[in-house]
Fold this protein.
Amino acid sequence: MTVLTVLTQPAARGLRVSAHGLVHIYRMEGNDVVALSSVDLDVAPGERVGLLGPSGSGKSTLLRLLGGLQAPSAGRLRVGERDLTSIDAGDLDRMRASEVGIVLQGAGNNLLPYLAPADNVAFAQQAARRAGQSGLPPPGEVLDLLGLGDQAHQHLVELTPGQLQRLAVAVAMAALPGLLLADEPTSQLDHHYRDEVLDAIEHLNQQLGTTVVTVTHDPQVAARFPRTIIIRDGRIGAEGRDGEEFAVIAQDGSVQLPPHLRELIAPGTLLRVRAQDNDVITLEPIRDRGQAAR
Amino acid sequence: MDRVAAGRVMLQGLRYRSGQALAVLLLSMLAVAACAFGPLYERSVGQAQLRSTLSSASAYDRGVTVSSTHLGSEPTLALGGGPARALFGSPIASQQLGVEYDAGGHPVKNSLMLTRDAQCAHLPITAGHCPAAPDQVLVSTSAAKTLGWQPGNKITVTVPVSGSRPTLGVVKVVGLYGSYDAGGPYWFRHQYWTADGARESEDPRSLLWTADPLIAGAGFAAPLIGTNTGIDSGVPLVNRVELPLQPERISPDEMATLRSYVAGVTARALVQNDRVDTSLPSLLDVVAAGQRQAGTIIPGFAGELVLLVLVVIGLAVGAAGEARRPDFALARLRGRSRGQAGRLLVAELAPLMVLAALPGLVVAWLLAGWASRRWLAGVGAPELRWPVLAAVAAVLVVQLLIVVVVARRAASQPVHDMLRRVPARVSRLRLGALEAALGAAAAGGVVVVLSGAAHNLLAVLTPGLIALVAGMVLSRLVVAAARRRGQRALWLGRLAIGVAGMQIARRAGARWVVTLLCVAAALIVSASEQSSDAARNRSVRAGAEAGAPVVLSVHAVDAATLRSAVAAGDPSRHYATAVITQRPPNGATVMAVDPPAFARIARWGWDRDIPDATVLAKLSPPRPKPVTLAGSRVELALTQLAVTRVHDPDPVNKPGPVWLLLTLRSSDGSPGSATATGSQVQLGPLPEGTGRSVVLGGPVSCLRGCTLTQMSLVRSTGDEDAVTITAPILALRAGRPGALAPVALGSGRDWARVTPQRTVPLRSGTTSGPQSVTQTIALRSAGGRLVLSATNTGAPAVVQQLSTPLALPTILAGAVQTAPNELGYLEDNNIDALTTSFDQVGRVALIPGANGPALLTSLSLAEQLAGPRLVSSELTVWLASDDPAHEHSLVAALAQHGVTVTSRDTQAAHLRVLDASAPAWAMRLALVSAALAALLAVLVMIMSAAASQRGRAHDLAAWRLVGLRAGPLRRAAILEQTVVASVAVGLGAVVGLVGARLALPSVPIFVTPVPVPAVLHPVAWAPAGQAALACLALLLLTGVAIAQAMRPQVGAEQLRQGQ
């Protein structure tokens, strides 16, 4: 892997992401489904974040909202300088052309199967170039960044799964965006290829200062990220920092209990919350309702 | 950089989707070919119509003849010049002069001397040499034989000049000319050679002769006219110049030039007092009518096909758009706008369509060339003119619009929707703008058709539009029914049906496939029905024009000989029948026939046109037995005779006796041979007074028998007294003098008045007496005997024995212009060319072979009323079938009875002429259209299967995974294809038939007006059924082949591939 010559101030290229009270509801015939409920999130420029959570928790929905693929139902969402709650179609196109790179789940879904890797990267750069973005690196350099320089003109069928996934990342990074959104980039890979991809993303982040938000349901993958955000039932349930998981107080003061505590404390249980002198806060379940009245 | 990259993306995309690209390329070629073929073929048909019409017309009709009867005139001047002259050959100048001469005792009063430019180069001179001097002539070989001429003879000719002394001249016969082809372009239809060369006048009252012309050397007229050259009228001289048209030099673009040229010639001739004869403008009208009809039919059929191809292209492009959804999604994901994303599809398909234009045009050109060579004789290579290029440009633009619209719609979906593997389907009914427009157009077409608008393009397009709308409705029903039936079958455990139903319901393009198969089947059946209906109409019209499958023109001395010869040749009267036709120049055609045999053998058009048996029977009504007598004398005994007279005091009145006359006809039918003085026997004056008995008699020449046809009262010239007669007849006797035998006169019902009943004012009348009398005559039964009674004021009064009819019973066809006479009968020519009365007993739409207003009558009755000689009659024998062996034996039998065949006409020959017309040629496009529709249907099925192959394989594999055996899945695959094909073809056939029935009355079939008054269109079930079955068989085979091809895909391993 090499460093792109066009980059001078890597850290300055990352985009800030901030979401406050973000809500997304899927409108279905018959009933609506709340996918995200009052999500608060701040991702600093150049930060590398893993979104962790079980299937259906809302992490992919959050990723699509961050990529502007869907509009939030409520709340505020900013990516860099852009407010995605009031963005128009042209700005959204421009944002996706040069500011946000998205890696969809499944490498094949990110690539035109009839184009060679270099052509796929070139294809992804066209919109940015049309939008007036100058100084785009040649496709070969982008591929070099992901360790695919030697495969620039191979057929896609000749690439390994890991190479394909890295190519998907390369395509998303073709216009050197400030934010890379990756949805399960390692979901169909074995450990070797998984690590290869995660290394590539990490390398990108370090080299370019790109903010990276990656969705995964694999704790081992999440462990490779300095910050992980655990989403449960459409909310941010916890955050992990360097392997340790913390509950997060939301803007409205709400906090999710970790799953193992939920097994101990049934829904509907009253808790007595007490702050100790040593900044420790205790949660005391009240088994007897009469006791609660006292 | 961007353009290079975009070009690479396009090329790589084309390579990746080469099958789809090939399909679009082929379809686009087909659309261009279908669109270009229409104007190419239409132009060729127009050209063929021009050539055919002009070539089949005689040189005289298509050429221009300027003639002048003025001495010293120069009709050539009227021809003028200009570019139009290049379309004609060299003018042929001629001069002819009416002459009379005496040839071996035959007073030839009707002959010509003439000369033409280069005449000897076109005449077969059988003896002698070409005239080299004005006083040298050629005579026809047949005239030389009849009149006893030979080279070296001299003829003294007279030029009759009205109001002046005829001039004389002597010409020398220097050679003989034989028969030549008067239909050749040089002769301008002039036939100067006849088989008998010289003949008596056809008028039996004339003793004059007509002879073939004397063909003289140039400049013969002046010496003959001699001193009369100063006279400008009355000289039977014609100076003429004939300008032969060269049909092969004329293109449709020059029709206007020709018209204006003819108008110019006519104007110049008018100034010179010359006469112009040409049928060129009316021939050009016929050509223009044919071209207009081709301009209705061809764009109609081509339009239907183009419509179908465009819909298929729409389907193919739609499928391509569907297949490109992931590409669009990626493009949007990488920041392209909707338009830029859509351009991916446009950039890939538009070049293909542009690329297909040239080969499509070439295919159309080759196809039009093949069709022209195959169907349009004498037409050169198809012409690439601006309408062709405009059509290609138009279809190209429409295709590009389809691509742009599809691309925009596909790329405008939300990105996350485009990323879905299985697109969301909307189950509720939606009516798109296209569907609404098509429905409105179809409804408009039906209204146009039902309103009876003829020769309308929308009417021709109507079957296709109806089929499209019906197909769209059917497709919705099929998909809904397949879903319901499939669910029910799965619930009941009928897996094959269930899976097939669900597959039909789930396939993205299923609705369009059903629609297109329905349209294709409708087009095939509609084309078959329209084509076969037009063919049947042409066949019917050919039969009605010819009269019968075979019509032999024959020569026979008289009608009786002809009838007996035909009876001998065909005793059954089911194969041959004699027909004698009179075509008076100013009256309706009269056809004398054997009614039952004629009804059987003639081609009446449609069955409804055949007169029913009761009407036919009226042509030969039962008649009383004729009054026959034999001997040399006839006597009529009257008793109680009463003859009273009221005297007219007018000084011009000259009273005289009242004569009783009998009209006899000898047994051989000749009216003039019954008596020495003619057919009438004058029995002597009736004595005046009352109560007297007299015997009146006279000589007759009836040793071999005579028939008494009429009794008449005849008055002296100038006798206008009112006479009343009552004459009871005691007896009529005939025989040798002294040995007279009674002759039965029959009853009063057997006799009828011939002369009209008329009321006449009496000048001798008093205020108390009658002021007028009604002139009448009757022969009635009274008191056991016949009584002749009459009131008469001088006009002839006749009663007729009804074995000889008063008038010929006739069946009328068309608008006969003759007004009825005083007796209420129509008058027209009998077979002897003399006027006779006709009594209308029925009316039919048409009489075969008459080709216009006509009277059909009984030949045997016509013979009775006619003289012994047939004058200006066409003698023909009509045959029920075109059977050479049968015909040969009949012709031999006719020859044995002295009847010779002179020419032969057939229904097939008329059909060939009708087949070589613009509407017939244009209608052939229906078959091309049907064939291409079938090809498209097959393509649609293959394309649909190919487009859904991956998803289908995945579905089938999933079924296998849950335990379904391969057998039901194979059956399901076959069912899925065949059910769709069967249902679509079934409805398509019905809709096609209905559409064809609706459109047919508006589809032109004939260029010239139809002799068949109404063209009926009974359904041709056999061809329509065959077309539908052929279409069904083709699509079922295709469906089974597709199902078989999909079979190897049925496996669990497909599950991963389908992902």
Summary: Chain B touches chain A through 27 residues (CB under 8 Å). Residues 304 and 464 of chain B are 6 Å apart (CA to CA). The mean pLDDT of chain B is 81. The longest strand of chain B covers residues 689-715.
